[in-house]
Write a structure and sequence with these properties.
alpha+beta, three-stranded mixed β-sheet, extended, 59% helix
Length: 554
């Protein structure tokens, strides 16, 4: 089965590697619980499962072993784990906490293995572009390595170089994961988790990370959004030398927000830095719709004159107008302590599946009560919101789940800068301004005009639609496709009942015809023929069976 449904011939070797790693860290039990034990019994995986176990995994919990296996499998699975780490609405806390520990730091590749690709992407000698190039990487990850260099004009830059041969492995991983998601959904093993949506989100994220031009475009767009904010620093992209596998950007010289001694030495204002960082992040989310999705201490830099820099836009989030409207509803409920609109959000996100209104209403009330009764913390409120969605059996949209995780990360960094800082104090007024802007007369007028255009288009189409319906009715070709749940079961039950009834009728007819004749023959007991006693016993047994069947179905 695995040969037919999971692995194409070209991905068979990668499949063996994946199963070997999973077996080495002993995570087969996770797949067994999912009903995917046949993955480890197929002839494709037989030889791989003979791999000896990794000693580091001995005695570790299932989440820990899975995290170790993911790190060993490389960038695609690390990204998948990072996405799952945002899904507090789907996974238990111990799995979320373990996936949050995922890192992509790996041993660096020697410069001799990287140089040829850099020369090819620059379309010429490295010395023609860079006055100096430090071949010792600043950082090394599973996707890329980062180097320090200097242009001939004197500008200090960082050069991000994709690891050679990476795309082929990532594309094979995505194909295999897509097939696995199809199997899980076809078998209806985990419908609540929507594995196809998760893999689709992973595919888009990996496509962005594989093409550094997309990262460059995101960075340039964020820089344009902050042109009027000199307190925020965004790297400058040198497009002339950037390509799909190579990214050249300005070097942002600052210190980490966790460097307490460096902050003291520079005499920087921690409170002001936290406020500026919060305002910048909230602007990205509430106004621009394009935000830095991984603002950990390595990507948020503190600069001189209390300026804040954001670097590494390999992971960004994008919010549509609809999603920003939904986010405003959520923030309004957190800030005001009112449940207005939250149940409608959950209902919209539930999709075509059954939505339990009473369960959702109870979860919303508990969320609002808990948020209002405790000191307001945006990070805790968002975590409680994800827990509320889990209780309601509703999967939060992936882009919003990514935002919740980014908010939690940013809030942690800002709290590290200033333990007394509360992002809600900044978020409250910004949410109110966003609401006023969203429901301003000008916005309402623009949306009303757009709605009128839609209504006019529908009205113009209506006569033709009605004529088509009447024509179909006139010629008897109108068809309705009605789907009734469990109709196949009902048909099977009716067929069985009809069969039993037919047998009973035929049997009764035969007995009625032969009964008078049979009563004249055979031995007698207590004055009655033996056939009469047999008939009486059969009737009593039939009545008992009938009453027992009715009682069982009550």
């Amino acid at each position: 089965m695995l040969d037919m449904t999971l692995a194409a011939i070209r991905d068979r070797e990668r499949l063996r590697q994946i199963i070997s790693v999973l077996a080495r860290f002993g995570v087969q039990d996770v797949f067994m619980r999912l009903g995917l034990g046949d993955l480890f019994n197929d002839k494709t995986s037989h030889s791989s499962t003979n791999t000896p176990p990794d000693t580091a995994a001995e005695g570790q919990s299932a989440p820990q072993r899975m995290r170790m296996a993911i790190e060993a499998l490389g960038p695609t699975f690390i990204k998948l784990g990072q996405i799952l780490a945002t899904r507090g609405d789907l996974l238990p806390t111990e799995w979320i906490e373990e996936f949050e520990r995922l890192h992509s730091r790996v041993a660096s590749m020697p410069w001799s293995d990287m140089r040829e690709q850099v020369v090819a992407d620059l379309a010429g000698p490295i010395e023609d572009v860079f006055a100096s190039f430090d071949t010792e990487p600043l950082a090394s990850a599973s996707m890329a390595q980062v180097y320090r260099a200097r242009l001939h004009g004197g500008q200090d830059v960082v050069v991000k170089v994709q690891r050679p041969g990476l795309r082929r492995t990532v594309e094979a991983d995505l194909r295999l994961l897509a097939q696995l998601a199809n199997i899980v959904e076809e078998r209806k093993l985990a419908p609540y988790y929507k594995p196809r949506d998760i893999v689709r989100h992973l595919t888009l994220a990996m496509q962005d990370e594989l093409d550094f031009r997309r990262e460059a475009q995101s960075c340039e767009q964020v820089a344009r959004n902050f042109e009027q904010h000199p307190e925020i620093e965004i790297p400058y992209i040198y497009s002339a030398w950037s390509s799909e596998r190579l990214l050249v950007q300005s070097y942002v010289d600052g210190i980490a927000p966790t460097d307490d001694s460096g902050l003291r030495a520079q005499g920087l204002d921690r409170s002001l830095l936290a406020e500026r960082g919060a305002r910048a992040f909230l602007k990205m989310v509430l106004h621009d719709g394009l935000f830095h999705a991984d603002p950990h201490p390595g990507n948020l830099i503190v600069l001189a004159e209390n300026r804040v820099g954001f670097i590494d836009f390999g992971m960004v989030g994008r919010l549509s107008d609809l999603r920003r409207d939904q986010l405003l509803v959520l923030f309004r409920s957190i800030v005001s302590g009112r449940p207005d609109g939250l149940i409608n959000l959950l209902m919209d996100w539930s999709g075509p599946t059954d939505f339990n209104w009473l369960r959702a209403e109870q979860a919303v009330q508990e969320f609002v009560t808990r948020t209002a009764s405790a000191p307001l913390s945006l990070k805790q409120a968002l975590n409680d919101f994800m827990e509320m969605a889990k209780q309601s059996r509703v999967a939060v949209p992936p882009d919003l789940a990514l935002l919740v995780k980014a908010f939690a990360t940013a809030d942690g960094v800002l709290q590290r800068l200033d333990p007394q800082f509360n992002i809600v104090q900044i978020a409250g007024p910004m949410v109110k301004r966003a609401l006023l802007r969203r429901y301003s007369p000008r916005t309402i007028r623009r949306e009303a005009l757009a709605a009128l255009v839609d209504v006019q288009t529908a009205a113009l189409d209506l006569p033709q639609l009605l004529r088509l319906v009447m024509l179909r009715l006139k010629h008897g070709h109108f068809m309705a496709n009605i789907k009734i749940a469990n109709l196949d079961r009902l048909g099977t039950s009716l067929e069985r009942a009809a069969t039993r009834l037919a047998i009973a009728i035929v049997t009764a007819a035969v007995l009625l015809a032969l009964g008078p004749v049979l009563l004249q023959y055979g031995p007698r007991w207590m004055g009655m023929p033996a056939f009469a006693w047999l008939g009486l016993l059969a009737a009593v047994a039939g009545l008992i069976t009938l009453f027992w069947t009715f009682r069982r179905r009550r």
